[in-house]
Amino acid sequence: MTEATAPDRDRPANDTSEAPPARSGPGSSAATLAPQYSAADLEGPLYAEWEARGYFSPAAGDARPFVIVIPPPNVTDVLHMGHGLNNTVQDVLIRFERMRGRAALWLPGTDHAGIATQNVVERLLAAEGKTRFDLGREAFVERVWAHVRATRHTILDQLRAIGCSCDWTRTRFTLDPAMSRAVRETFVRLWEEGLIYRGYRVIHWCPRCHTALSDEEAEHEDVEGAFYHIRYPLADADGHITVATTRPETMLGDVAVAVNPGDAARAAYVGRHVILPIAELEIPIIADEHVEAAFGTGFVKITPAHDADDFEVGKRHELATPIVMTPEARMADAALNGKPGGRVPEPIFGMDRFEARTAIVAMLKERGLLEKVESRVHAVRHCYRCGTVVEPRLSDQWFVTMEPLAAPALEAYRRGDVRFIPERRGAEFEQWLTGIRDWNISRQLWWGHRIPVWYCDQCGLQQAFREDPAACPACGAKLRQDEDVLDTWFSSWLWPFSTLGWPEQTADLARFYPTDVLVTAPEILFFWVARMIMAGLHFLGRVPFHTVYLHGTVRDTHHVKMSKSLGNGIDPLEVVRRFGADALRFAITSGLAVGTDIVLDPDDLDTSFAAGRNFANKLWNVGRLLLSSLGEEAVRPLADVPRAERKLADRWILSRLARAVRETTEHLEKCRLNDAVGTPYHFLWDDFADWYLEEIKPRLRGEAPGGEAARSVAAAAFATVLRLLHPAMPFITETLYRRLPGRADSSIVVAPWPAPEGGWDDPAAERDFGFVQALVNAVREVRADYGVKPGQEVPAFVAKCSREQQAALDAEDAMIRRLAKIGSLAPFAQASALGKVGAHALLPEGAELFVGLGDAIDVAKECARLGAERERLDRQIAGLKSKLANPGFTGRAPAEVVERERTKEREWSVQREALAAKLAALGCA
Ligand SMILES: [Zn+2]
Ligand SMILES: [Zn+2]
């Protein structure tokens, strides 16, 4: 799309668009409403006005705060549907609480996103034929900054386009100086508490990104792989043992073969040696608890530098830790500094790890050492940023001891200080915390917070500093800073309080911490949510939020998660251009039940967003009709309309409204967004537009009494439902709200959230108007059943009505006759005059309806049609009966087939009875 497109202009106008003439002339509210709703023209200017008026900043004063911190998108991100979903949910909640009078703060910002952003810029460099090493650290970081400065506003502007009411005056970036201070303070405090340590151990290494990854960043994925059974010849005798592995290339780093100490069958091997093929080295057979006797062949190869468990075995037995791959995952013996030989002889030397796997397997086969190959599905870890298979690799890294941080988080969860929606996510959280592992926080990247540890090569000092040190405090020599940067999540986990100024004791921190709700995708529960809870408790003594709402994901019609790389995404901005932000938000909220995903069709945006667009059009048309009737004159406040002046329909719609207000409020409080938008949607469409507006049309035109009351009730009800809809559809609700009489200078953004007023609840009115609706619907059904022409009036008669029912019919007589196209509505006693040609129907509480059809239809023709239909049905039933009477069928056919035929017979019999009744009612022969 290259230009903005107005929403369908060729859409047929629906019934409510036939507005009566305006009461006042040109210049009235309705006159300024275009015949068609055009989101593209209205949304941008409205948003700018809201922002300029400062509505998005929390009001000063002592209103109770309601705070959400945004899950910061990556600074180079471009808005996708995942963001669209996540941020719409946050905006709905924040707008709701703002209207409820809370000092609402939605704090926005972006994340520097270490690996992701570095990758983006490295790709740009690659296009110029360069690597980051060609530039050097300083120039590269400057290049990333330049890129970030150029792109950092993109996603924030896109959030504006979908209506997000963030407080932009408080926008944060995880590499801002204030945020860097918080990171530095955190690191040094943990250091001082002895919770940060340097460890030489096997970590997850991405050979493409050239960095270590945390457990969470190395994502499991099941892949179809091979399980190679390899013979290791005995060193002191003929024969061999067999080990099995999915990664034969790592065998060159084997330093032992282990068996379980209790494995009697293999006990005799312990202490002997085998020859490691290809490397041609003698390695011992040892016993270690880590080996399960039942696993594989019972012999397990031990590769301490390339497997985390083997590393532990190696430590217990004081084994060597040879590294046999370069950081790029090419085969080389680290001890030989890039020369072939040692454990990695020619021709394996220099090969990529997967090439090497093929070559090694071929060599083993040639030497008769490959016993067999089984195929099996096993979990392989992949880099969460680039998808490369992660290589376990022995490396020096910084870790945070997590157990002391996890314990208070676990307690807080069990105390109920933080709850999850949906609840089952809490169990996952609990489980992860229970089995928590130390957090590898160092990354071999250049983009990020550099680790604030300095080394003295003179005296060996190694220390973390809050301020960059000038010289070694011990010996005065020059210091050298650690080359690595911190994991991106090391700044993200401070987000709920670093954004408020911590470690300074700012006014914002005092007022807005702890925050209220965190809204995020379930994928980052461990990466981020759990760690924020730990950090909040550890550094501020309180959980950072009381509720974590983990929403679903956006999927296509094949239920595949939308992603740019799969090409099944939807660009939210294209949706905004074509259908408006409100239509986008409606599709998201109305589809979002707790614990479910949203399904949209990327190939059919018209269908995916039709409901939202149609509803916006409906609101618009209702608004036009109403506004043109209300005119410019002040409408009497509803509270000043005495009950005696309110007709049955007025009392009914207010009672329905009270229910809608209460339900919508409760749904929003419980984050049930689909119901929170569904309730006012149905009120507006099914109750207000379909019935109430129809009822009051003549009153508004002055053709029936009660016009003033109708105006008051309609204006109040419409203003109320607009407010209920505002969190989900901010733009159209504001546009219409301001045009209501007396509201030109107000804004729905800061309008109070509605509460049912005294006297709105009216069960009797709901029951009585419900009876009227049942009667109209019954007549409509009869008309459809007998094919009565739309314009043709029919006489209707009621019997056995209660006093209240009769009163309701009298009160709404004009509407009933108009909506059901009834010429006369009379008591049943007068029906005899019609010669009894017509249809019966039952109404609520035992009342009955008779619709005269003698003059409305060609009775002889209808008798012939119904008669023919009855004959056809009779033949079908007879055929089915004889089939079911035949033991050859019932005895041999599967039970469910027989049951299906029996059900069919019952259904046809019911149909036949109905037909017979119709024929009798029409007096057919
Ligand atoms: Zn990677
Ligand atoms: Zn020193």
What would your notes on this structure say?
The chain is α/β, with parallel strands linked by helices. It has 29 helices and 29 strands. It has a 4-stranded antiparallel sheet with strand order 6-5-14-16. A 4-stranded mixed sheet has the order 10-11-9-12, with helices on one face. It is globular, with a radius of gyration of 37 Å. One zinc ion binds next to loops.
Q: How are the elements arranged and paired?
A:
Layout: H1 39-52, E1 65-69, H2 81-99, E2 103-107, E3 109-110, H3 114-127, H4 132-135, H5 137-151, H6 154-161, E4 172-173, H7 177-192, E5 196-206, E6 211-213, E7 218-233, E8 240-245, E9 256-259, E10 273-276, E11 281-287, E12 300-302, H8 308-316, H9 353-366, E13 370-383, E14 391-400, H10 403-415, E15 419-421, H11 424-434, E16 439-440, E17 442-443, E18 453-456, E19 462-464, E20 479-481, E21 485-486, H12 489-492, H13 495-498, H14 507-512, E22 517-520, H15 525-540, E23 547-550, E24 554-555, H16 572-579, H17 581-590, E25 598-599, H18 605-608, H19 610-630, H20 648-669, H21 673-700, H22 707-725, H23 730-737, H24 763-785, E26 794-799, H25 803-811, H26 813-820, E27 822-827, E28 838-842, E29 848-852, H27 859-885, H28 887-892, H29 895-921
Parallel strand pairs: 1-2, 3-4, 9-11, 15-23, 22-23, 24-25, 26-27
Antiparallel strand pairs: 5-6, 5-14, 7-8, 7-13, 9-12, 10-11, 14-16, 17-21, 18-19, 18-20, 26-29, 28-29
Bound molecules: zinc ion (2 copies).
One zinc ion (ZN) is lined by residues 206, 208-209, 383, 385-386, 388.
